[in-house]
């Protein structure tokens, strides 16, 4: 294992990596895994990847598990990067438009990436019970990976979570509690009960490892583009772990000499019914205040307060990116437009990136012939109530 320590993303206090850790004890912010990247680069090379298994554990030197016997996997990662033709022709300018289709992960969403890393590390550190709040897909992934690891999982979801997610958790062994409220209300229950119940809290960014699984999206993009990153990445943002993880991956790859200092412009996409990152970005704030009365049919975007808000906002600004909100009507219409154009039944969250892209084009923030990547974070089939 090349992990050297854990570091608070805010105050930079260091913590031991071989112990269960949640948030920084000094400032209450997320901890990030740090590696000896010089050592990692001795065996993790561009050439070595050509001979490795087609899943995210191909990047094992920059993932936290020490003993590979503790890896809990369904073969997640290395999802398709699909170049669009029909959809790109509908835009007002000529673009090289790609969709990174995360719906082809196990449990049908990008959440599988985070949970394979988090549950594998929990197993390595002796955890028997895990708990988390979820708007849907994270719960489905945690339930599946926990069962595969012979752990108990305790999941708290808003009562209006898409029914497919609830059934998925029940059928893969989780103890499911539905809560009249939002994901933040569910998170409060986990925080209040975890010590007495003996649960390890694997809430978004409240432990250090889910982001490590998510960062592999950044490694894959670089590999799939021949080590030349795209110009623009549009990413649907709830908790924001995907954006944070990819930004971390880009820095790691540059340190190892795989890429240069060029970075894509990152675009955070939210719903106008819950847009705390968009508001904070345009008001110049480093931390996002909680969004009141959050409401959107895209359940993964209904996160009124993200603990990693400052990391998302830092990445957007450092990349010269931006944040855009779209309406529920726009994102639902986009599901059908992408489906009829490219044959992908996207999650509403992923589809939200299409109207966001059109707004960028209107504002002259995307140029002719640039390479643009939309992330479809999940499968539309889990959101049938939306249609």
What report would you give on this structure?
By secondary structure, the protein is of the alpha/beta class. It has a domain at 81-109 and 210-386: Rossmann fold (3-Layer(aba) Sandwich), CATH 3.40.50.1100. The protein is built from 15 helices and 13 strands. The chain has helices at residues 37-43, 46-49, 86-89, 111-124, 137-148, 163-171, 183-197, 210-214, 216-224, 241-255, 276-283, 309-318, 328-342, 348-351, 353-362, and strands at residues 3-8, 14-15, 31-35, 81-83, 96-101, 129-133, 152-158, 175-179, 200-201, 232-236, 265-271, 322-326, 371-376. The strands form three sheets. The protein has a six-stranded mixed β-sheet, sandwiched between helices. The protein has a four-stranded parallel β-sheet with strand order 8-7-6-9, with helices on both faces. The protein has a three-stranded antiparallel β-sheet with strand order 2-1-3, with no helix packed on it. Strand 6 (129-133), helix 5 (137-148) and strand 7 form a beta-alpha-beta unit. Helix 9 (216-224) packs across helix 10. The protein is globular, with a radius of gyration of 19 Å. The mean pLDDT is 97.
